[in-house]
Amino acid sequence: MLSKAALRLVSAVSPRRMKLLLGLALLAYAASVWGNFVSMSFLLNRSIQENGELKFESKIEEIIEPLREKIRDLEKSFTQKYPPVKFLSEKDRKRILITGGAGFVGSHLTDKLMMDGHEVTVVDNFFTGRKRNVEHWIGHENFELINHDVVEPLYIEVDQIYHLASPASPPNYMYNPIKTLKTNTIGTLNMLGLAKRVGARLLLASTSEVYGDPEVHPQTEDYWGHVNPIGPRACYDEGKRVAETMCYAYMKQEGVEVRVARIFNTFGPRMHMNDGRVVSNFILQALQGEPLTVYGSGTQTRAFQYVSDLVNGLVALMNSNVSSPVNLGNPEEHTILEFAQLIKSLVGSGSEIQYLSEAQDDPQKRKPDIKKAKLMLGWEPVVPLEEGLNKAIHYFRKELEYQANNQYIPKPKPARIKKGRTRHN
Ligand SMILES: NC(=O)c1ccc[n+]([C@@H]2O[C@H](COP(=O)([O-])OP(=O)(O)OC[C@H]3O[C@@H](n4cnc5c(N)ncnc54)[C@H](O)[C@@H]3O)[C@@H](O)[C@H]2O)c1
């Protein structure tokens, strides 16, 4: 039916009309092809555009994310929560000055006294201390940090003074012996003068080095010591001895209340990484896969106390009525080799132990007698060696990571060494 109708139509159309119709059909076909092409390329363009936009957006996201992270950190630092602090009534709250409070021991003492609810002023010249050790208190209403050298007089109102300012490790105190002497002599006089003016009690952080190269073991407080007054360590040993003398002169002549802590080797987080001490040396060597260097046979013994034990001892002594010197240390002796092996296994390090020739004047034994502290302060160390070492290892590992991730922060300089021989400190 349909084909017949079409035939009739075709035969009825003249050839001219036929050409016209064919032309129109061709045009319609071309238009439909063009239309398809246009719509396809539109769709294609759109997907390319969308794709490009997506890529662009993810690039921007990549750049912005670290900025967002930084903003979050900044926000956190503004709304920073301080470690929990006890509330003390005005009557019980003391105004406490800690000289050398940004150092290793001083910063832990700051933490303890702040958390106990006291008002703490840290005075430090940042010779070996650093702001990072106490930064978590900056801005707290009970805390103040003053950049000051104790060789210059200080005028503030306080109830107690923990006088810790002094470089403590041999490379540091031998770097500038005259300054070490000034800090321990003029610095101590200044702090005793302040204690006298404001009626404060002063605790001196003295040292086991006042016993020098001891001839009695273990050392009791009534041992007078065996110190070379002109040796390379004299600036520190004799500096601390005269600082003790000054304390008792001020006590006898001016009635200043003094406390003297003879501190033995101490370790823990925030101790200096490059101060050449045996614990820090071994931990760093083990963490970095380097050989652990033992001088001599490694049978020499050392005794180390964990820093929180020392801090508790310092506070107990300050608040006691014991004005004569008191040893604060851990009497548990270990050989240097035992330390090396224990640290190696706690770090899980494959480092070897390397034996080097014995160092001159390396003491064979170091051990405190702490009967007096036990009896009069009820104090003794409680942190087991392994527990303390694990905390110190954790700290050193984090410090190494921190340095690796913060290349723009200058690496800590190696200990400022000028003179002195290598030995186990
Ligand atoms: N760490 C130990 O094993 C040990 C052993 C015996 C005695 N001590 C005594 O304990 C105290 C603290 O020792 P540490 O191990 O924390 O040492 P550290 O070097 O970490 O701290 C000493 C602090 O005193 C500051 N300081 C030095 N000279 C100063 C000055 N002139 N004015 C102001 N600040 C000054 C330093 O910058 C540093 O913050 C020292 O007096 C040290 O003699 C420590």
Automatic annotation (TrEMBL):
Protein name: UDP-glucuronic acid decarboxylase 1
Catalysed reactions listed for this entry: UDP-alpha-D-glucuronate + H(+) = UDP-alpha-D-xylose + CO2
SUPFAM superfamilies: NAD(P)-binding Rossmann-fold domains (SSF51735)
Cellular component terms (Gene Ontology): Golgi cisterna membrane; Golgi membrane
Name of one Pfam family that matches: UXS1_N
GO biological process terms on file: D-xylose metabolic process; UDP-D-xylose biosynthetic process
Molecular function GO labels: NAD+ binding; UDP-glucuronate decarboxylase activity
Annotated source species: Erinaceus europaeus
Class of the enzyme per the UniProt entry, highest EC level: lyase
Membrane topology: Single-pass type II membrane protein
PANTHER family per the UniProt record, alphabetical: UDP-GLUCURONIC ACID DECARBOXYLASE 1, UDP-GLUCURONIC ACID DECARBOXYLASE-RELATED
Transmembrane region(s): none
Keywords associated with the record: Decarboxylase, Glycoprotein, Golgi apparatus, Lyase, Membrane, NAD, Signal-anchor, Transmembrane, Transmembrane helix
Residues of the UDP-glucuronate decarboxylase N-terminal domain: 6-83
